[in-house]
What does this fold into?
Amino acid sequence: MWNRFLFFVFDSIPERALYPQLFRVITVETFPRPLQTWAMTGAAFLSPAPSARLPLRPPPYEPEVAAAIQSTAFKGLSPLNLRLALANHSKLGPAFQAMAHVVLFQCALPERDREIAIIRTGALTRSEYEWGMHVSIYAEKCGLDAVQVRELTESDDWHALSPTRWTDKERLIVRMVDELHRHSTVSDQTWQSLCAGWPQAQVIELIFASSFYHMAAFFLNSAAVPLEPGAERFSAPLAQAKVAA
It folds into this structure.
């Protein structure tokens, strides 16, 4: 633990340029919980990853912002750069995180259904951060193999999904996401099929899974939040969203 602590404290030494992965080993989650607030309030040195647009906010932080930054349910790979970007707004940042927590951890919707919706949304919005984090953290856990992830990412629409790899309900989730992305609503037929396939509360949760992460993608893409080390990356021809000059 102390070797890692030294790397964290001396994150600004010149060798960091030669070995960037080595000198970004430490995140807040590495510290025992009693020391995490200490780390987040500037007593320990934190060197955020560089951002081309919205800077990742360094310490010191107000207590409520520090609490939001260190508030994570993830072990291992964690959206630290997103939390540091959100720290630039003391009201919206914690509210965003609270909503994400409800969508991910407090709903009855099966995890696989939710992640199909989110990974498809990340692909359609060309949000490499969002897509990469959810593929890395959840795909294997939800039983989504590499071929299924590729189909979710690259298929033109739900018709192109392999019928032998997806259930009718899973294809319907992709249909819902595609319609929300392209039309900002769903068709009457899709709505009726959703209501026939899930309890009403879970239909709402499905729509929120896609729509909340649509909003998240807009922020991630516009703010150019740096990708997390270790997260999956897009493969050509898919690329991060940008506006042509």
Confidence is low (pLDDT under 50) at residues 1-27, 40-45.
